TrEMBL record:
Cross-referenced Pfam families: SCP2_2
Protein name: Enhanced intracellular survival protein domain-containing protein
Native source organism of the sequence: bioreactor metagenome
Signal peptide start and end residues: none
Entry coiled-coil feature ranges: none
Amino acid sequence: MEDLCIKEATDADCKELAEFANKYLAEHFQIFAIRDKAYYQRLLKEYKSDGGSLIIFRKDGRIVDCKRCIPGGEKVAEGEEVLEEPPKIMIRIVDVRRILMSLSLRSLMGVCFQVTDPIIEENNRYLLLTGTEFSGVMLMEGKPENSEGTITIAALASIIFGAETVDEACQEKDVQMSERMKEELGKIIPLSKIYLNEVV
């Protein structure tokens, strides 16, 4: 077994911790909050104020793991909390194109529709969503004359994150979909690998 170097994290480790965490999260999750040096500096202060610390595990000089050490000697692996049910989160899409490009599909799809967003002007657009189960989503600007319906950013978020079915989202105010649009949006595989552990 290779030797592990185990030590308490300090401010000097925060940049490297952020790089390690972001790489790990990108490999295992579809949606996650990006960490930076300031995030870990704040985390170290929070743990210290509770009498705890963050322990770093290094192998060959590189960080391979980190665990929270809490009073009483109990250690809890970061991100490995066992939940009885998925946590409830509030969803707000800030870049509709980027989130759509991260989706996977069940089968070949192609549909043009209008997205409406009362807050973020850049999200108000006509989109042509195409792709396959192999390629993922391909996104182009759509044309109003080709649109098969209108969906609010909130209803689209509900579909993307699996909070509602397409039929349920279609019942929301200001949402109008052709039957074909409903079928096509039903081919979206909702995002499920999500790691958001911050209370905002």
